[in-house]
Specification:
Distance between the termini: 38 Å
Number of strands: 6
Radius of gyration: 17 Å
Largest sheet: 2 strands, antiparallel
Structural class: alpha+beta
Shape: globular
């Protein structure tokens, strides 16, 4: 049990469907929180951003130390626990995660996951994921989340998926002010 990873309390099959019971995250998810702050015109302070990024980084460190790569890290997969007037972010939704022992080019490349937060390695078929690059996709996504918290925008945007992938591969992003 880690303070920055959502706890699974139970799991069972119901009508041939896997059901997972997780701890309550009464604050919703980080994407909702970012949208609320954007709508209210209330940017996050540098200290708030640092705390949020640190929560996620510590959760990722725990995952990576245990040989797990998330592979779909994004604000919607970060839930908020409110505790004694402070916000704690927890990583959730491990549906696309991979164990280091099964980490192969066949399971790490492609467009699985959310494209906006995907790393160049995800799309680059000439240099597929290798064991020595394990976890780097998650760190890339964390950088995209930090950018999103700082600007209320995404570092890479395009209405066309292939154009978006090209921008990510080439590192063509909007600079921070």
């Amino acid at each position: 049990m880690h303070p920055y990873i959502v706890r699974v309390l139970d799991n069972f099959l119901l009508d041939n469907k896997q059901c997972i019971v997780m701890e309550l995250a009464e604050g919703g998810d980080l994407q909702k929180y970012i949208n609320e702050r954007k709508t209210a015109g209330k940017p996050f302070t540098e200290a708030e951003i640092v705390k949020k990024v640190a929560n996620i980084a510590l959760g990722l460190n725990e995952l990576h130390s245990n040989g797990i790569q998330h592979r779909d890290l994004k604000p919607a997969n970060i839930v908020i626990e409110k505790s004694a007037n402070k916000i704690i972010l927890k990583i959730t939704d491990f549906g696309l995660s991979k164990d280091k022992n099964t980490y192969t080019p066949d399971t790490t490349t492609g467009t699985t996951g959310t494209v906006i937060f995907s790393s160049p390695e995800r799309f680059n078929k000439t240099t597929p994921g290798e064991k020595d690059s394990f976890g780097k996709e998650d760190i890339w996504a964390l950088g995209c989340i930090a950018y999103n918290l700082s600007t209320f925008m995404y570092p890479f945007e395009d209405h066309d998926t292939f154009a978006l992938m090209k921008k990510i591969i080439e590192g063509e992003h909007k600079p921070l002010s």
